[in-house]
Amino acid sequence: MTSSERIDEALSDKAIEWVVLLHSGHETPADHEAFARWRAIDRRHEMAAREAEAIWQGIGAAGRTIRGDARGKSRARMTRRAMLGLGAVGLVGGGLLQSGLVRLTFLSDYATGIGEWKTIALSDGSTVQLNARSALSVGFDRTRRLVSLTEGQATFSVADDPARPFLVSAAGGQTMAAGSQFDVDIRPDDVAVTILHGDVSVSAEAAGRAVTATTNQRILYDGRGGLTKVADVDADTETAWRRGKLVFNDRRLTDVVAEVERYRYGRIVLVGAALQRLSVSGVFDLTDPQSVLTTIRQTLPVRVTELPLVTIIRSA
């Protein structure tokens, strides 16, 4: 895209307004015709329209209408801000349903909501610190202690019991330990296992092998069979959330956004492949997740559009 073809922010916001209107439940055939004329004005209008449609579908709300409270309002009285707000509510609701977070919460033994932390005492004397927007189930028997982390992140302090290994299953992999302390974090593209104390063994189902790591080391695995070599890390920094902090050291923007969504209401949507190459550094307080977005806006070559319950990040 040349500089003359770059979509300016006002044009992009107008396209988003159009797309939300056309899914609002108050749209008319005349609205669809007007939008078709608007996007046909020139190439930039067409690109803005495509971007807005991609944003809508990317959040998982394609094809749904925003009705509910909107039915009782006159279309003539619906302001741009109100229409965008209704659209955002629909986008967030649809995204949560598609992510399965609500379903996982009901099916799990323990779960946390946005910005909520929980410490769990297990029957064997082990403890679990459950991060925000996380869920797990427990299944102990005479031969093993199995915990299934189905969403989010947790730190496990394992009571020693040589006769019953402690196993944590998460996203196609398994971590085994006894008398150790480690953290398991389900991230957008992989799972990070960080060891705070002792030794653990990590295996990925598709990899067919296991890797052992010790204090201040980390192993990554994914559902495609990828299992990384052991890397040295500062485990206290990697698990700073347990002390109410977020510490990013050249972390990928996609991972940072996933972290922030654990502590902040609403969805954050990244638009454009170029954003995959961006990274974030800084120390932030979990009670102020908005400060992460402020840093992203001020330090990265991006445009940030904040709607009610939805934040859109695009290349500048």
Could you explain the architecture of this structure?
This protein has about 325 residues and is α+β, with helices and mostly antiparallel strands. It has 3 domains: about 5-100, no CATH class; about 105-240, Jelly Rolls; about 245-315, Phage tail protein beta-alpha-beta fold, CATH 3.55.50. It is about 30% helix and about 30% strand. The chain has 8 helices and 19 strands. It has helices at about 10-20, 30-40, 45-60, 80-100, 100-105, 235-240, 255-260, 290-300, and strands at about 110, 120, 125-130, 135-140, 145-150, 155, 165-170, 175, 180-185, 190-195, 200-205, 210-215, 215-220, 230, 245-250, 265-270, 280-285, 300-305, 310-315. A 7-stranded mixed sheet has the order 1-4-5-7-8-11-12, with helices on one face. It has a 7-stranded antiparallel sheet with strand order 2-3-6-9-10-13-14. A hairpin with a 4-residue loop joins β4 (about 135-140) and β5. α1 (about 10-20) packs antiparallel against α2, α1 (about 10-20) packs across α3 and α1 (about 10-20) crosses α4 (about 80-100).
Global shape: elongated
| Strands side by side in the biggest sheet | 1-4-5-7-8-11-12
Share of helical residues: 25-40%
Low-confidence stretches: 1-5, 61-83, 94-100
Distance between the termini: 12 Å
Overall pLDDT confidence: 82
Per DSSP, the total helix count is 8
User: How many domain regions?
Assistant: 3
Main beta sheet strand tally, sense and closure: 7 strands, mixed
SS-derived structural category = alpha+beta
Write down the CATH class of the largest domain. Mainly Beta
